[in-house]
UniProtKB/TrEMBL annotation:
InterPro entries given in the database record: ABC_transporter-like_ATP-bd (IPR003439), P-loop_NTPase (IPR027417)
Taxonomy of the source species: Bacteria, Bacillati, Bacillota, Bacilli, Lactobacillales
Naturally occurring in which organism (per UniProt): Enterococcus florum
Gene3D superfamilies: P-loop containing nucleotide triphosphate hydrolases
Protein name per Swiss-Prot or TrEMBL: ABC transporter domain-containing protein
Pfam family for this entry, one: ABC_tran
Domain ABC transporter residues, every copy: 2-71
Length: 71
């Protein structure tokens, strides 16, 4: 469960998420990519509320701006 998470990433920054096993890294990435849903709060990416986006809009955001490398 994620609680009280706030992340601000500036244009041009590359970010990696590293922490001990079981610390919800994958949950954070899934929520950011909207592969998982949230119960409360909001998720914004490039000033767009992701919870309100349709699948086609998400695809247009993901394609050029998001990438995942799983271990």
């Amino acid at each position: 469960m994620l609680s009280g998470v706030s992340v601000d990433i500036q244009k041009g920054e590359f970010v990696s998420v590293m922490s001990p096993s079981g610390s919800e890294k994958l949950t954070l990435l899934y929520v950011l990519n909207r592969m998982d849903t949230i119960d409360q709060g909001n998720v914004q990416f490039m000033e767009q509320e992701l919870t309100a986006c349709k699948e086609t809009e998400l695809a247009d955001l993901r394609r050029p701006h998001m990438g995942f490398v799983f271990q």
